[in-house]
Structures are given as structure tokens and as C-alpha cells.
Amino acid sequence: MSGINENSLDVNVLKAMADEIRMDILYLLKMEEMNVNDLAEQFDISRPTVSHHLQILKRANLVYARKEGKEIYYSINIYAITSLAEGLLRFISI
Question: What's the pTM value of the predicted model, to 2 decimals?
Fold first, then answer.
């Protein structure tokens, strides 16, 4: 049933958040800006895998990326998270 989504919930955002590692990454980025190496140290996964998860979050507009020298630093897009929460609340209040 495509096209019935009147609540403007972005399915790509929901899919991006449907992974435990990506949720953990968002939680860490909520506390501070981090680069891939910083994040990889927090998990039992490789740096390329962390980069893959970050790209998914970036495509869903859930994180910002800022380049400093050769490093890219990521931070959470709190506006996108807040918009998602508001959309979910509208969805369940129908």
C-alpha cells in the first residue's frame, strides 16, 4: 500500500534506524562529535563496517559530517531525530 503515508514518516530514516549498531552510533554521537576511529574503538566491528553504517545514517540525514584535515567528524542531526519523533507521535495519535 504505497502512497498512503500521510504522516510524512520517512521510510528510509526508519530503515536506517532499524539496526542496533546504528542506534548505538547515534547514541554515542548524541554525546559528542566523533570520527570513524573513535567510533570503531567502541564496537567489536571493523572501521570499514563503521564507515558503512555512518554512510547509511548520513544518507538518511540522521548525522552531519564535517571534514577536518584528513578526518571526517560526525555529529547527530538532532532536528531530524526530533522530526521523526514528532511524526511518530502524530502517527500513533490518529
Answer: 0.84
